[in-house]
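Possible regression after last week's pipeline update?

I re-ran a chain I had predicted before the update to compare outputs. Posting the input and the new output here so someone can diff against the archived version. Not blocking, just want to make sure nothing changed silently.
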Amino acid sequence: MDNNNEFLTRQPSQLFFSYLIPSVSATLVTSVYILADTMMIGKGVGAVGIAALNLMLPIFSVYIGTGILFGVGGSVLFSVSKGRGEDRKAREYFTVSVSLAALTSALYMWLFTRFFDPITLMLGRNPGTEGYVREYGRFLQMTPAIFLFSSFLQAFVRNDSDPKRAMAGVITGGVTNVFLDYLFIFRFQWGMAGAAFATVLGYGLTTAILCTHFLSRANTLALVKVQSPGRKCWEVARHGFSSFLLEESSGVIMVIFNRQLLHYVGELGVVVYGIISNSALVVSSINNGISQAAQPILAVNYGAGQKKRVALAMRYASWAAVAAGIFFTIAGLLFPRQITGFFVEAGPEIMDMAVGAVRIYFLSFLPLGVNMLCTTYLQSVMEPNQAMTICLLRGFVLSGILVLILPVIWGVNGIWAVMLVTELLTLTVSLTFQRKASGRI
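New output (post-update):
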């Protein structure tokens, strides 16, 4: 069966929308893992539990981001090679990507076990959150492979023309995680440890379901002997690095935001940011799903030299990204209290701060989706340096500078406005790069 035939023959609109629901569902349900933990911990453990969870989220970002690094980087090269009819080379990229993912998983297990104390201190662990951080973190120390291969396999299974299996795996794991969160936290009274255990089991189930793709008739992924493995490792890392930065930047910025908020308003600010960052996780997941629905279509048709089909796929994805941005921005402006109450039993202090924070921060969702889509487009048409530039701007450079400058001018509201200013400035660069790349295809 030629899995790439549909990418080159079906109408781009039909292709995109057939991939859209499975891709968005898979990426959205991924965020359910953290959302379920946040909501259940907020209701069952308390606001300090949310603060502790928020301090641990950067470790999740490292695990998931590394899976995305090798999964997206390898699957883009896999798809482009398939579009060019180079099936053997496509399998070599898969083999290299799997090897890198396995080696990195082992490295992370050693690092986070050996250096857990200094790492969590750097993330902002303090006497008030220490017990919760240790309780939750001991499960993360030993399970990096489960998280890493979950995001890694999603990319390859989707690009190997099996988006429904990717969706089924993530949804099944997400629903299991929610159920186990309730069981472990409220019924068994296991607190933070129960939330962590539920998350590990949910991710493990997702990974197991994704592995069943290798038994299907449609599977074209296989391990082969690799020619020039060093060069291919570099290519995989280079093409996936912008996606890694996109994921990892959220963890880095979270650390900086948490430290700034602790300085300006104390733990209350971290609790509010925990609510906002989890809401942002949902929005980013949906926009990532839109981008990933377009990615295999863009990459295969670029490899086959089908310029018009690339442009059509990008057009439909852009419409979807803009529509999502408008929807979530309006939701934040109209329903800040309901969004806050979804996560925690908010007292007057938390609610007063959260209402203004949600309304300011949610404005950044208007340009966010287009920036993410432009990054995916540039990856798919072999412009990894420009994709990396966009991720560096919005993930580290602009946001890292602005989170230090804006609160000096506007106080805590300056912290909430950082991502709005960052996304708007990045948008001008993203659209410029995208237009230039389109002209070169």
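Follow-up from reviewer: compared with the archived run. The CA atoms of residues 39 and 159 lie 33 Å apart. Marking as no regression found.
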